[in-house]
Amino acid sequence: QVRLVESGGGLVQPGGSLRLSCAASGFTFSLYTMSWYRQAPGKERELVAGLTPAGAGTTYVDSVKGRFTISRDNAKNTVYLQMNSLKPEDTAVYYCHYGLYWGQGTQVTVSS
What pLDDT does residue 56 have? Predict the structure, then answer.
C-alpha cells in the first residue's frame, strides 16, 4: 500500500533552517508529482510546494518563494523541503502529498 512518511520537523528560531524529508513507498515514485502542504492552527491546509516527476517543474506559494526549495531523489523515493529564513508564520504541520494520499505530518514550530 501507499505510504508517505515525513521527518525532519522540530522547533527552530526565526531565521533558522530545517530540512523535511518524505519517504515514499507503494507506488512508482518517479512517475508522479510530489507536493508539500501545511496546515496552521485554525487555518485551511495550503499547498506549499510541488515538484514534477523529473524535477524540472516546481511551484511555490508566494509566501515561501526564495526561502523554500523542494527537491527529490527518485533513486531513494524521497522528496525534500529545504526551509531557510524561517518565520513564525511558517509554523504549521507539514504534510507530504501524492494523488489521494497524505503522510501523517510533521510539526514545524518557529519561535524564539
Answer: 82
